[in-house]
Amino acid sequence: MHVLAILLALSCWSSAENTPAPGYVVRSEADKVYVDYGETSGVKPGDLIVVYKEGEELRHPVTKALLGRVETELGTGIIREVHPKFSVMEWTRKPSGPMPQAARTRLKSVVFEPSSPAAPALPGAAPAAAAPIVPVPPSPASPRAEARDSSEDDEDGGLSQRVKTRAARWQSPVFDYKATGMAIADLDGDGLLDLVLAEDSEIHLYPYPPTTAKSKSGYKYPGITPHIMSLEAADLNGNLRAELFITVFNAGFPRMETSVIELQAGGHWVEVANIPWIVRSYQGAKGEKLLAVQQLLDNKTFPFSSIMPLEYRDGKYGPGKPPLKFKRVDWIYDFTMVNLEGDGALPIYHMSTDRVRVDLKNGSWKSSEAYSQTPNRLTWGEKILQCRPSVLVRSDEKGVPALYTVRNVAKFGGLAHTLGLYGNGELHHRKWNGMAFDTTWKANLSGFSPAQAWVPNKEQDPRELAVTVVAPTGKSAVWTYDP
Known about the structure:
globular; six-stranded mixed sheet; 483 residues
């Protein structure tokens, strides 16, 4: 027991010794900051840094001893590059005003690998609810956190390969509810991103990235039996702030509908439209985000209307033309688009077995594993319909596409899938090799995921992937990954 205590004490002492001393901002630009942390400082790519300014001295009222100074936090950023005598930091939360002279910097928190025995509890642990964002350092072998070789092999269509695991770029505070949907956009027109998370019949607004579990604003969907199935955000009406599209299943009627709301001054939400359509995003042939709509019909044999593009015209939201007609695609939550060289833009969609499939000009490819399982589901007639988390697509600089898919694992050895009960999940990255989408890396989640989304960026190429994680305890968090 004494030996254990000594080891713990030495571990804490060593951690404190390796923590870099406060530094200074050397130069500030629009999207990045140069700080005076060099290679010998101990900072690493992936570390979260706080930028602050010092104020008045604090002195003890009796001894007059100097206790420190008043500090005002200006913003936060992530270390991207470490050079011999300085580091380059990328803003995650920019200052609201100009950078003052002699602005200070310090490491925000000690970082842990998610698998580390010393790591703090992930979503579900009460003490973590008020914790700050905990950045996860990249692997020493790669600045993009491509992490370690896994001991498992992936087999798909007769191809076998070694699969790597990837650590999260950062993890948000823990939210004390079970999230059902997520949207990220500039909702108030201030030029900064906002995060919206949905639970059963409410939404919660946070700055992106969130630094606290306390929401800035909330909105409760009216009615007795509403259940929020998904969220989307886009500025269709062109007023320089995104509308939020809340798609809801009302079991009491029953019907699916979408409420379009906007954030007004003071953090108040106002409903600007209510339409009898499901609103869902998908990616176009160039990877752009597009919105589509669909209705459920009172038809037990085939309850699906056509899938149409969503338009804002003459002050109203509604279906446009032409309809999106794809072979074997009936349900709006089942598909997105991928551009394959030689075959062009094709729908990639879920089969009834939850496997992902793309039909090529000659043949087809389908995954050996099921993806995008979700508890967000409804019974319509004789069908059980899943409102799945999106399959996302991104192409590299050579135009080679990759899929980002969530694989949620049912409880009780898989027996609870029909009930929509999931305990754990994985994020899979699958890259096109000319014949199939190979799994190149996986990320283990401490719960299942009901939603994932690209974080909007001024450039077309997204730099961050956000994943909502719901723990078995019913608490939630947002984890992000380098694409």
